[in-house]
Every structure is written in structure tokens, then in C-alpha cells.
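Blinded run. Sample ID left blank on purpose so nobody reads anything into the name before looking at the predicted structure. Input follows.
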Amino acid sequence: MFFTQRSRFSVKLRVVAVVTGAVAAAALFAGSPANAQAAKPYDHKDPYKSGCGNSARAVKTAKIKSRANGTIGTIKLMWSGKCKTNWTEIKVGSTMSGSIKVYAQDGRYDTFSYKAGNGGRHWGDMVWANNMCAWGSATAQWGGGRGGQNGSGTTAKACG
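Blinded prediction complete.
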């Protein structure tokens, strides 16, 4: 078979491009969060609608504090032994709104935004956290959030 210098160079470039592309695609797939931290059965589901909240208990509790107003609420990291899940619950003033988060040690998390109402009791959705650490955080604001009308809190890690 007869190859010119130019055609050999062209073939080498195509081989290098194909190999480089395959390596890059494999690296992207292996490092993707979806691959590393696959969703579990109860991730991002309501603990009370799923039945996981029926026998749950608080494993860590902390205060939600405002720099200008002191303690404005409580935050609890909840655990369901039945479902092997954690979620975060808060109790704040009924005119407050904000966000509730729960984190699992393997990088999965859930964020839930709440609005004023419900007597100030709110909870986020769950993440599966069997045999690993989990923790929760929350923010709260009222009256537009300006002038110190906001606060936050974080639980300690609970490891199981």
C-alpha cells in the first residue's frame, strides 16, 4: 500500500484525536457527580408523605440566630431508622421565609425553600445517609431581610 507523507500524518492525527476524545469522555463520565453519588430511593422526598417521619427522632439540635436579634428559632437534624434518611426541620416565626438544607457526607444534599405560614414549622426533603455523617442548615428572613431581619443556623454532624 502506498502512503504519502501527508496521508500518514493525517491518519496519525485522526487516531490521536479519537483516542484523546475517548479518554476525555471517560474522564468526564467517571468524575461526574451523577456517577459518583447516585440518588437513593428516598432522596428528595417528603419525610411525612413517604411515612419515614412517623417514627423519626431528632439527632442534633441547634439555634437559628440573627446577629441583630439573637435566637429566632431552632433547627433539628432528623433521622428515620426505618428509611435510613436524614432531613432538617425548623421552628421559626410564622412570618419568616427562607431555605432548609440537609447534607450527606458523600456529597448528596437537598435544598427546600419555605414561605411564611404553617405556624413557623417547616421541614425539607430527605437524603439517604445510612452509615455516614449528615448535617443540616437553615436560613430565615422577615420584613425584607434588611437591617438584621435575617438569621441562620447549622446543626453539628451526626454520624451513624
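Unblinding after everyone has recorded impressions. The longest strand covers residues 70-80.
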